[in-house]
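User: Okay, second chain of the day. Same drill as before: sequence in, structure tokens out.
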Amino acid sequence: MKTTRIEKAIINIGIISLAATISLIASFSVSCSCHEQEERTSEQVNTGDTTVVVSEVDGLVFYKPTKNADIELCCGYNDMPPKDTDAILFVAAAYTRVYGQASYSHDLVGGPHLSNGYFEGYDCPANSGAFYYTPADGKWGFVRDNVTEVFKGIASTNEKCSGFCQVMLLYNGQECHIAPEAKPAKRAIRRALCELNNELYVIDSKREVSMYKFVENLKNAGVSNALYMDMGSMKYSAYRPKTEAQWMEIHKPNSRTRYCSNYLLFQQ
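Assistant: Same drill. Structure tokens below.
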């Protein structure tokens, strides 16, 4: 059975045992996809009670939260990093409209979003897809069409729910059109929320690359669905490699970090 390049690399460096290797399962084509310098690989940062596995392959950095992690879109000017000891990974999600506004409102979040309810956000032309999660059943998925209707439907039947809109890079294994408003040719450190082998990963580019190159690398790694995540001034992010460990910064905070309007939080 064919395995992806990331699976082969992880097996070779001994991060996970052969028993933990997951076979590549083809994505199915529906409107909502439900259920995840030198070339080098790096070993898992810590062993033991692992919460986030980190690896590097072909210019990409993979952050794999524990399989049953809870996911929440946190909106507002929140503490970063979160003080909750169950928190294991946080990354900015939707675009933030402006920086420096004294008081928070959902109008600062790019596009429709779910944060234990439905909110419109501001009109963001770069957006072309979305992600959602419902903790009641642990269901998550990527949406490309009719996002507003899908989000409203989820909010009407789920008291607790999370979801955000962004630039869809890959959908069911196919490259997506990227609007010029997303500045796809610009070279920058890139990040996406990805589905790989029916599991969720946060994947960063190791170097500054265009969105086109980033998409190419993700596709080559076997990613089936990929939704971009806010970087630039909002790229502050960190993870805990194991339960109750100290936060390990992926990217450091800056003067605008406190104005981040939303971030995706993974909890053990």
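Residues 126 and 180 are 7 Å apart (CA to CA).

User: Thanks, on to the next one.
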